[in-house]
BTB domain-containing protein (Capitella teleta), 468 residues
Amino acid sequence: MTREDYDFDSNHINDRNNSTISTARRAERVTLNIRGVIYQINTKAIEQQPGTLLADILRNHRGNTIFDDEIFFDRDPFIFNCIMNFYSSGHLHFRHCMCRNEVQNELEYWKIDSTKLAPCCWVWFGQKAATEKKCRAVSQNFTEDKTEQLLPPNGWRIKLYRIMENPNSSRLAYMWSIFILSIIGVSIFGFILESLSSCRVPRKRPIFNETDFRTQHTNTLLINANTSNPHLALTLIDVITNVILTIELVLRFMVTPQKGRFCLNILIVIDILATIPTWLCLILFSNFDHEGHVGWSLLDDYPNAFFAFIVLRSSRLLRVFRLFRLVRTQNTIRIVLLSWKKSYKELLLLCGLLTIISTIYGSLIFFIESSEERFDTIPMGMWWSIITMTTVGYGDEFPVTTGGYIVGILCAVTGLVVVATPIPVIVNNFSSLSEALGINMELAGRDKQIKLKESQDGVSKPAMSVEM
């Protein structure tokens, strides 16, 4: 073999060895193209995270030429930096400025379980998820009424429906809701004044003998109804407010497209149950002469109808529940109710703890104070313990022995701890839901501005084309 042949064979062997080493090195790493950004990752790092997308690709195509060239992925390179760090270090971290939904989408695409997030980022990830969940809950409770879509787009029914049912649809609708709430307030105020003796006028003659009736009944409501009637002014207020509320109820029934669902609404049921007894009382039992005294009424001819009259008058108490209409106009009240709904577990826990602890302290105080004849029964002791734990302290029952004093101290201290425990949870839910409501209102305002701009652009573009 000549020297030239030896040199040629040596160079050929070296080139082949270098090519083999280069191929082996290329096989040890993978080149990724993430929207034009080039990444290189070691195959051993990929194998340490089985079940991920890159690990599946590596397992299915090992030995192929797929890794000789770069692999293109149309994904976000900014988020992929964090995923690269996860493969190299085994710890999954994300920057807190990133969108939580985008991070979730990338994790699902690369088949990386979110439970592998580091504790510091898991707290951030969970808080973002909780905020989004509360925003969805607020959005579901503050969504627009879809019943309106069942009405014709143009016509008097949809205009009247918006005024009656959607106080936020226009200034007129808001003023109408304020007017109806004012009428409800006047009606309730008159109902309260009827209980005052100075706002009542005596009957010409009592329905039953006053002396005998007082000996048989001690209820103030029964005694007042037997000897007097509300003043004429209060009766007129009751008539006027009831007429307005009845007309409003009939109009709402006329314009709604879903009358069955309308009648099953709890607020509508309250309106109906509060309206019917009022009309029956006014028609059957309230007829005044010019002096303000009762003239003819059903009770004069049928005294036995007195207790039916009392039942009807007591049913008028339902008008107080009409104040729940504030829920439709006041977002703060809706947030309070929603925060209670979200805190139902804590409220149930509070009720359970109060029941258990009141049973324990009620039994203790019963056996300790039984010699002094202070607490006759265990339920009376439970009543005392609940009043003590809630720091009300009526003073109708109290211990007088040393053992009773000790039980009272323990009961009061325990009550402070138990009652105060769920309060921060409810307050936190209220504040977070209020924040979510603010976010939703800002997004709704932004959407309205976008729609308004699009409508203006849609109007202006044809005008420009005409001029051209």
Remarks:
- The domain at 29-141 is CATH 3.30.710.10 (Potassium Channel Kv1.1; Chain A).
- The first strand starts at residue 29 and ends at 34.
- Strands lie at 29-34, 37-42, 71-73, 200-202, 228-230.
- The chain has three domains: 29-141, 156-329, 332-440.
